[in-house]
Structure formats: structure tokens, C-alpha cells
Amino acid sequence: MKISILTLFPEMFTGFVETSIIKKAILKEIIEIEVVDMRSFTEDKHNRVDDYPYGGGAGLVLMCQPVVDAIKATRTEDSLVVMMTPQGKTLKQSVSYDLAKEKHIILLCGHYEGFDERIRSYVDMELSIGDYVLTGGEVASMVVADSVIRLVDGVITQESHEDDSFSNGLLEYPHYTRPREYEGMEVPDVLVSGHHENVRNYRLKESLRKTQKMRPELIESRDLTPLEIKLLAEINSEE
Ligand code: SAM
Predict the structure, then answer these.
(1) 2-157 has which CATH code?
(2) How many alpha carbons fall within 13 Å on the CB side of residue 183?
(3) Is residue 184 part of an annotated ligand binding site?
(4) Burial grade of 229 (CB within 10 A; 0-12, 13-18, 19 or more)
């Protein structure tokens, strides 16, 4: 999979592509990341990419010409052009799974007041990482790229992400590692019992417990299995 990031601040991505799992995915040639400087497309003699908004008001607006020319130079018939904007559809794990099936994603990073509205005609999808406003789309595009890359086949094992929070609609169960006892807190016995089915049931139960406590709306909208109904009844009687 190829991910192209269209930005005015390419230097922000240096650490991103040179660290941890993202770096390994690039070295293994599973992922290609291309960082495109939109400023290099401007036809303005002073290198400007933004201008004052018609109608007045604060801030600067990204102009059509450099942004649209950068999109046109980067996209192919396989590309999905995604505009990073707080006004877009909210990123969820299910969206990341869908994006992980694409061949080429172009992430378009805004800055200042955002984009000239006409740029929206050149994008396939508008994506937000949450209901808050960032300075620019760079951090948001890293969030999207990171969440997508780890779901692409071969980047991490399927087992590593299929139990992750949200992947099956629940929050993930708690994890423990050595030591077995830390400042009076013990690792639950079942996890060291070696009994695989009991471990599976324990994890499902704790996953349900966490989800009910932290994100009850996920339980309310879930089509519960008979086992999940039984485990939730146990949880409710315990609490
Ligand atoms: N004036 C715009 C608005 O109210 O919708 C916000 C502009 S914001 C300061 C500048 C850029 O940051 C946006 O064009 C977008 O690319 C990015 N951005 C800010 N918040 C974001 C979010 N929650 N999700 C995705 N991108 C975001």
C-alpha cells in the first residue's frame, strides 16, 4: 500500500517514518510513504499558498491552485483522496479497516483556516480524528496513517490487532506481564493456570466489564451472544 501525504510541513514526518513499526513496514516494502510538499506546486512568484478570505474575517485560506495541482500530480486511478478536516466523518477502527484495503491513499493536510471550499470537489472523502480543532492536518494524517498501516497484512500479526479495542466492538481485556506480584497487586490466577478456555472466558468477561464501565453505549448497541449475556449477568451480580 502507498500513502501519500500532501502537506506544507514535510519536515514533521521525519520521525514518523523513521520509528518503530512504521519504519519496519517501510523497510519490508509493505508500505510506501510519500511526503509531498504542496508549496512546491505554487505558481505564485512569492511562493504563497494561502490568501485572505473573501468576505473578511480572521486567518488565511489555502488556495485552490497549489493544492489541486498537488492532488492531480499525486493521484492515479487507484487513489483515494482523503481531506483531513474536523468537519469530516469521524475516524473509527472500522474506517481504518476499510482504508487498509485501499491501494493508494492520499492524505491532504490543511493549515491556517483550512481549505478554499472548492478544493472539496477534488477529494473522495473527508475525515476527522475527533471533535476538536488542531493547528494543521499533519498530526491528524499521522493518526490515520498509523491506525491504517498496522492493519495492512504483514505489518503486525493478525492476532495482535484482532483483539484490539474496537476491532470486535468491545474494549480490550487487561494485560499483565512480569512480575507476578507488584506492590501487593497480583496477576489473576487464571492467567497463569495454563487453561486456555478459562483464559478466553476470563478475557471476554473482563473485556465486557471494561466496555460496560467505560463505553456503555458499545454494549447497548451490541448484538450480544448467549455467552456474553451470561457473563454480563455475572458481572452485574458481582458489582
Ligand atoms: N477553520 C477550520 C474549521 O473550523 O473547520 C479548522 C481549520 S484547522 C485550524 C487547520 C487544519 O487542521 C484543517 O484544515 C485540517 O486539515 C486540520 N485539522 C484540524 N482539526 C482536525 C481534526 N479534528 N481532524 C482532522 N484534521 C484536522
Answers:
(1) 3.40.1280.10
(2) 0
(3) no
(4) exposed
**CA-nearest residue, atom 24 of ligand 1:** 128
What is the value of pTM for the model shown?
0.95
If 0-12 CB within 10 Å is exposed, 13-18 middle and 19+ buried, where does residue 3 land?
buried
Question: 86 CA to middle of ligand 1, Å?
Answer: 5
- Is pLDDT above 90 for 161? no
Averaged pLDDT, 87-106: 97
Cβ atoms of residues 43 and 144 within 8 Å: no
Confidence of residue 179 (pLDDT cuts 50, 70, 90): very high
Residue whose CB lies within 8 A of the most ligand 1 atoms, among 9, 82, 85, 115, for a mutation test: 85
Cβ contact 58:92 at 8 Å: no
Cβ contact 25:149 at 8 Å: yes
Q: 12: CA distance to ligand 1 center in Å?
A: 16
Q: Is residue 110 annotated as involved in ligand binding?
A: yes
> Under CATH, what is the fold of the domain 163-238?
Trp Operon Repressor; Chain A (1.10.1270)
Residues 110 and 136: beta-carbon distance below 8 Å: yes
Residue 151's nearest CA partner among 192, 99, 229 is 99
Q: Where are the domains of the chain?
A: 2-157, 163-238
CA of 5 to the centre of ligand 1 (A): 15
For residue 73, the number of C-alpha atoms closer than 13 Å in the C-beta half-sphere is 16
Residue 124 marked in a binding site = no
